[in-house]
Amino acid sequence: MIYTYDSTMPGALPLSGTAGSLAAILKTYLVTGAGAGSVATLTVADGVATVTYASGHPFKAGAVAHIAGATPAGLNGLKPVLTASANAITFAAAGVPDGPATGSITSKLAPAGWTELYPGTANVLAIKSSVPEATGCALRVDDTGTTNARVRGYETMTDIATGLGPIPLDSQVSGGLWWPKSNAASAATRPWYLVADERGFYLAVSPQGTADRFTLLYAGDIASLKSGDAYGWLLTGNQGDQTVLATVPDGCCGYSHRGARGGAYLARSHAAIGQATAAQRIGTHHNGSTADVYAGTAGYSLGGYPNGANNGLMTGLLELYATAALRGTLPGLLHPVQDCGSAFASGALVSGTDDMAGRQLLGLRVAPPAGAVTPGTVFLDLTGPWSR
Q1: CATH code of the domain covering residue 46
Q2: In DSSP terms, which residues pair with 45 in a beta bridge?
Q3: Residue 161 CB contacts under 8 Å (≥ 6 apart), including other chains
């Protein structure tokens, strides 16, 4: 299942240039969930359940609700939200008889199924996937600073401060990578998106609060070409404070690095020996006219949007190249083949067709925090499952 959260949701936690704001977002939405409370009524009609609340709720369409305490039991569990109004939501209830539910019914915004390691250290978070098929690598987030958090992966952790198999190594990026929060050390809020499944997540942040200048970051398992890839875990991030950068931030997954490696590190090579290794992110349709460019811009695309032959939006995967081999792709992320211009705003929802039929995509505009670099566009699959 794919879980989506963003700064426009009712009661969403704020992201700002203050210590702990990012760690709180990641812990709440990946590990614990939010907005737990009682349901006023739950009624089923024609395969759709309508939930009402006495005074608001934390959901928007596309979020996942966790319903508990209802009879019939088929109304309980994880339920993708179809529609949301001020005091009500709906979700699909196929096979459940029409009529009102009974019981002491509760709901909350469901977390994405991650586990916190070593809780109790203020503004420092260690998390990992909770599913057995995952690689088992952990992410440590040091959010004791203001405008940035420092992040590093580990193959295993021994306590909140240390672990084995650091990703990246200090020789690659001393102290770990940087995840931006804000260009100002203040409580001024910044837009954010968090899209996750149980094995990886994307975090999009706009450090200066501009809707078409997000930095898109990833932590988690990749869609590896190697069967049973025990070290196919990727962390992307900036290699310094780039909250006011006017050129391309090296950690952004909307950026195709044909000419350089930086800002993306895998746990190990495909040979499963050694230590963390740098990875290039290569858009499958990057046309080579410039070395390093954003998805959906003129230097990346093959023609303009919409595509002349079918009036469509054409997309491709973002491949990972490391240690002289294509290792795999970033799950759930699509780069446009065409120059999309400004056709899609951040937050735009697109319904897939043909081989993407039945899927809904979230559009995000990606660019440096400042400067005149033309923003690009990426899309995240909100329907899933993401291939691994």
Answers
A1: 2.40.30
A2: 48
A3: 124
Domain extent for 128: 114-381
Give 107's contacts (C-beta < 8 A, 6+ positions apart).
35, 36, 37, 39, 51, 57, 65, 66, 67, 68
pLDDT digits (tens, 9 = 90+) for 254-305: 988 766 678 999 999 999 999 999 999 988 776 665 556 788 887 777 888 9
C-alpha pair distances (Å), 60 with each of 88, 163, 335? 10, 38, 26
Q: Answer with the one of 67, 93, 109 that is the final residue of a domain.
A: 109
In terms of domains, do 223 and 293 share one? yes
Q: Considering only CA atoms, which of 49, 55, 5, 48 is closest in space to residue 25?
A: 5
Tokens 């009609």 locate to 45
Report yes or no: 306 and 337 within 8 Å, Cβ to Cβ. no
Cβ atoms of residues 362 and 380 within 8 Å: yes
Whether residue 240 lies inside any domain: the answer is yes
| Tokens describing residue 148 | 């940035």
User: Token match 């699959």: residue?
Assistant: 381
186 and 58 share one domain: no
pTM: 0.96
Residues 59, 208 within the same domain: no
* Residue 54 identity: A
Provide the 8-state DSSP code for 10: T
Strands 277-278 and 315-316 come out as unpaired
Structure tokens given for 72: 């019939």
CB 248 within 8 A of CB 375: no
